[in-house]
UniProtKB/TrEMBL annotation:
Family to which this protein belongs: Belongs to the ROK (NagC/XylR) family.
Source taxon at top rank: Bacteria
Name this polypeptide is given: ROK family transcriptional regulator
SUPFAM superfamilies: Actin-like ATPase domain (SSF53067), Winged helix' DNA-binding domain (SSF46785)
Organism name: Streptosporangium amethystogenes subsp. fukuiense
Gene3D superfamilies, alphabetized: 3.30.420.40, Winged helix-like DNA-binding domain superfamily/Winged helix DNA-binding domain (1.10.10.10)
Length: 402
C-alpha cells in the first residue's frame, strides 16, 4: 500500500501552485489566491511568506480597493530579480530575450538568419553573444533560474538535439542543446522544444487559448508546424516528435514536393513557396513580408492574388478538417505566417470544414488567430524555462543561486 504525500511534498506542490498563479495572472490578492487554491488564509499567508523570503514574490497594499475594511495584501512576482533566458530560432530570424518572472520581457536582441546551409556556429555564436550582453547588464542581486529555446525543427525529448528540420537545411542529430549549454556557461542546462509546440503552450497560458483544454495551434514559418493540446496536456509523442501536422499528406497524387521528401504534405501545399508561386511572386522577396504583400494585393482586388489565397486556403481547410476529426479541439489557432493566410482565406477554410469535418466535431469549434503574434514561440520558450522553478520554487532558486 502506497503512502500518501508527505507534508513537505504537499508544501512544495502548494508553493509551486501559488507561484504559478502569480506568474501567469500577475499581481493577485491573498483573498483571490485563497479562493483559487481552496486553501485557508493562514496557509496562503505562510506560503507567500516563504516565497517572499526567497525573493520570488513581494507583498504590498493594493493601490485601490473600493471596499470598506482592511484590504487584502497583493502578491506580485519579482520580475526584475528572477528571470530566464529564452531563445527563438526560426528560419529567417533568431531572437534572444531575458524574461522576468511574470512573463515581462526585460531585455531583447534579434538578428536575421540567412537561409541556406545549416551551420551550428552561425546560430549558437550570435545567441550566446546576445545572452552574455544581456547578462552583463543585470544587477548583482538578480538570479537566472532557467534557459530554454524554441527551434524550428524536430527536437529530441531527452537530449534537446535537432533530429530534422527540412526548412532549416539541418543535418541529422545536431547537438544544439549541448553546444548552447557549453557556450553559455551559466551552470544551467538549456531545454529545447519544437517552436510550434511551445507556441501552443504559450497561447494556452498567455494568449487567445487561456482556459482552453483542447487546442490545436498551427504555425507558419516557411513550412507548417503544429502543437496539439488535449485535456490540458501537450501531445509530445513517444520521442517528442508529435504534432508535426505540416507533414500530414493531403495531396498524394498530384502534390508538390515537400522539403521532407514526400509529395503533397500540408506545408508543401500551404507554405510560403506554394502561396508565392501561385501568386506569381516567388523570387528575391520571401518571408512574412512577401506573404503579407500577397494578402494585401488580394484585399485591393488583385485577382491572381485572390486565386492564390483561395487555392492555398482550400488545402489549409482540408488539413484543419482532418485535425478536427482526429482531435476534436475546442479551438484552432493560426500563428506565424498562417495568421495572414487564414485571414485572407477564411471563407475557403470554413467552406472546407463544412464539407469535410464531422458535424459533432465542428459544432462548437472556434477558429482564432494568435494573440501573441510573432512572439508566440519566444513566449513559449520562456514558459519552458520557467517550468522547473514553478514546479519546485525553493529548490530551483537555491540551486541557481549557488
Amino acid at each position: 500500500m502506497r503512502a500518501g504525500p508527505s507534508q513537505e511534498e504537499i508544501r512544495r506542490h502548494n508553493l509551486g501552485a501559488l507561484l504559478r498563479h502569480v506568474h501567469l495572472s500577475g499581481p493577485t490578492s491573498r483573498a483571490e489566491l485563497t479562493n483559487r487554491m481552496g486553501l485557508n488564509r493562514s496557509t496562503i499567508m505562510a506560503l507567500t511568506a516563504d516565497l517572499t523570503a526567497a525573493g520570488l514574490v513581494r507583498e504590498e497594499l493594493p493601490r485601490e480597493t473600493g471596499r470598506a475594511g482592511r484590504p487584502s495584501l497583493v502578491v506580485r512576482p519579482e520580475s526584475a530579480r528572477v528571470y530566464v533566458f529564452a531563445f527563438d530560432v526560426g528560419v529567417d530570424r533568431m531572437v534572444a530575450a531575458r524574461v522576468g518572472l511574470g512573463g515581462t520581457i526585460l531585455d531583447r536582441r534579434e538578428t536575421v538568419r540567412r537561409r541556406g546551409a545549416f551551420s551550428l556556429e552561425e546560430i549558437v555564436g550570435p545567441l550566446a553573444a546576445f545572452a552574455r550582453q544581456m547578462h552583463r547588464r543585470t544587477r548583482p542581486d538578480t538570479v537566472c533560474v532557467g534557459v530554454a529555446a524554441a527551434f524550428s525543427g524536430g527536437v529530441g525529448r531527452d537530449d534537446g538535439g535537432i533530429r530534422f528540420g527540412p526548412n532549416m537545411a539541418t543535418v541529422e542529430d545536431v547537438p544544439f542543446a549541448e553546444e548552447m549549454t557549453r557556450r553559455l556557461a551559466f551552470g544551467l542546462p538549456i531545454t529545447v522544444g519544437n517552436d510550434a509546440n511551445l507556441a501552443a503552450l504559450a497561447e494556452q497560458t498567455r494568449g487567445v487559448g487561456v482556459g482552453c483544454r483542447d487546442l490545436v495551434y498551427l504555425h507558419g514559418d516557411v513550412g507548417i508546424g503544429g502543437g496539439v493540446i488535449a485535456n490540458g496536456q501537450l501531445l509530445g509523442g513517444h520521442l517528442g516528435f508529435g504534432g508535426e501536422v505540416g507533414h500530414m499528406i493531403v495531396n498524394p497524387d498530384k502534390g508538390r514536393l515537400c522539403g521532407c521528401g514526400s509529395l503533397g504534405c500540408l506545408e508543401a501545399e500551404v507554405g510560403e513557396r506554394a502561396l508565392l508561386e501561385a501568386a506569381g511572386r516567388f523570387g528575391p522577396q520571401v518571408g512574412r513580408d512577401a506573404v503579407r504583400a500577397v494578402v494585401d494585393a488580394a484585399d485591393r482586388g488583385d485577382v491572381v492574388a485572390q486565386a492564390a489565397l483561395s487555392r492555398v486556403g482550400d488545402w489549409l481547410g482540408l488539413g484543419v478538417a482532418n485535425l478536427v476529426n482526429i482531435f476534436n479541439p475546442e479551438m484552432v489557432v493560426f500563428g506565424g505566417m498562417l495568421r495572414e493566410i487564414y485571414l485572407g482565406s477564411a471563407a475557403q477554410v470554413r467552406s472546407r470544414l463544412a464539407l469535410d469535418a464531422l458535424p459533432p466535431s465542428r459544432e462548437h469549434l472556434r477558429l482564432r488567430t494568435s494573440a501573441l503574434g510573432d512572439d508566440a514561440t519566444l513566449v513559449g520558450a520562456a514558459e519552458l524555462a520557467f517550468s522547473q522553478v514553478l514546479a519546485d520554487p525553493l529548490e530551483v532558486l537555491a540551486r541557481a543561486g549557488s
